[in-house]
Fold this sequence. Notes:
about 290 residues, mainly alpha, single chain, two-stranded antiparallel sheet, 13 helices, globular
Amino acid sequence: MNAVDALPVSLYRVHYNTLKVGRGYLDDEEFREIGNKMVMFMEFCHFSRVNNTSPILAVGLDDVGYRVFEAGSFDSRMMLVSRGGFSVGTRCNLRKLRMNLSSPDDQLRDVTTVLLGDLRYFLKPGVSGIGRIKDYPSTMPLDVVATELLQQKLQPKLVAQWTGLNADEVVRMKRSLLRDTPLVQSQSGRIQAPNKTLAESPLHSLLYLTVYRLLADNPLRRTNARAVVAAHREYVELCRAVGIEASDMISPSNGYQLSNAMKTGDITLTPCSKCKEINARYALKPGRCIWCNH
Length: 294
């Protein structure tokens, strides 16, 4: 169980039916029972904060529900727990977990397994809660967007591609930022074709795309640059938490490429025909499933 405790995501995921519960009276026995449950849900909120991870990744609770619960008064929290249908359960197949504390790769596989359980759940008809991060608004000045993307260490070529700004202008913006903020330097390494990143780092690619799919608004219709930044930040935090070296992580630019490939349909998150687990597949030349090697 030490391996489970060390994961930056909880095996137990929070579910609720509604956030519109009004007010009501609880008798002593109900108050005691609901009070105990409320403490448990507060522990879930604390778990997300301690691990510096988005609530939907940490405990499977969308950020709207998280904010309403965490910021609510004592009475409103009691009503949410008693009448909002708040419950805790698992969404992944626990038998697939490796629970090997000595292996960062096995720990990362377990994190991915947990989050894929969430993805399957939220993609069911009638279930909402994912895709809360909207892209940069069209009214936002492109130079401001470019500056933010450069600060997140995306390569100038991709920043120019997304914003439509002249490539030379973006390079000048980066040089200006470097003079003021040395840490803005893009991560080293060439921008890879997404299928090459997927072939070289199938587990990391799957984890990143799962996080991106959970966070991004409309990821299958556009490359959501703001969600790319958020997803890569969360992906890095998850990797660090289980001891993955920075040199083994996917760069922000290659994360962008993977997200763009998801939009174009070149890479899909598709259940394996044999083991039924979700896998990242390159449409033109599907590789083997990372779960069952089929």
